């Protein structure tokens, strides 16, 4: 699907945003005639008028910031008071202006580090890792311990597929399968994607693991796929090991590894970072974030924030995990919460833990003020 084109589409074409992507107001266009003004409309209503420095036939402007919701975005090109053309793009997920702004995570926030260490944890084992991309500050607890990965390993599968893709993912033959793997967390779809990556699930899993290593996820192991027919439908801080749960071979994740993968995806959406250098296009990354924001499961963070959240959960009888990008307008938060209990993991206890991790990330990872830190309001 290429969006809805209205008016003089030959004379004026919008290259970004495109359908099925998360976008913070990055507008790209090309036109037959020089354009001096761009008008942006959201759901038919004027949102922003931008006067260009000089008339041009091609430009990328923004990010201007968009309302945090699903929207239809219309761009109108003007030249000397006359409309050159317009184009409406459907299925755009609006994000804050600084959504893809990132700085290297070089600082561990002492307050957040202490708070995570004191945070009540569910029975069994737990881990957390979080950074604020705008401030470059992070914190962690037990972030180097290995946990059973479950469906969180569909995140490196997604990244590996998109890094190797040389076309728009929305038009690719695997588009429907990709949606099933992420939005429905389908194991059968994940196996199909591994086969698309490597020719079989074993080779595909090895390639996804190798890609994760290149992105800084040093312990994560995708292994060789999932049990077929098991789909459940309807439903740089320290990397220490504080509490290592019992762990069998393969399908391993750590809080640190999932966090750096999600961080790489968000940065790639802005044309930066390790994943982008490996070949992940901004368009591909924005489609991935759209998919991750439209999953059929609420996860451990989305219920506790009013901001757009792109996330991938993993749950089986003994684990409840989630890794998320929370697009807070003060700075995108990468948050990870892992919980594992051999006697049976509790979804509600894991959700409470996720709520606590997000509260700490929201209040203690901003750039440090000149005076002693004071908690900022936590949005519920």
Core attributes:
Immunoglobulin-like, globular, seven-stranded mixed beta sheet, 2 domains, disordered C terminus, 380 residues, alpha+beta, disordered N terminus, Beta-lactamase
Characterize the structure shown.
The chain has 380 residues and is α+β, with helices and mostly antiparallel strands. The protein folds into 2 domains: 91 residues, Immunoglobulins (Immunoglobulin-like), CATH 2.60.40.10; 258 residues, DD-peptidase/beta-lactamase superfamily (Beta-lactamase). Helices cover 28% and strands 29% of the residues. Strands 1, 2, 3, 4, 5, 6 and 7 form a 7-stranded mixed β-sheet that branches. Strands 8-10-9-15-14-13 form a 6-stranded mixed β-sheet, with helices on both faces. The protein has a two-stranded antiparallel sheet with strand order 11-12. A hairpin with a 2-residue loop joins strand 4 and strand 5. Helix 2 packs parallel to helix 4 and helix 6 packs across helix 8. The N terminus and C terminus are likely disordered.
Query: CATH superfamily of the largest domain, please?
Result: DD-peptidase/beta-lactamase superfamily
Percent helix, as a range, is 25-40%
- Domains (count): 2
> Which radius of gyration do the C-alpha atoms yield?
21 Å
Named CATH topology of the largest domain? Beta-lactamase
CATH architecture title of the largest domain = 3-Layer(aba) Sandwich
Shape: globular
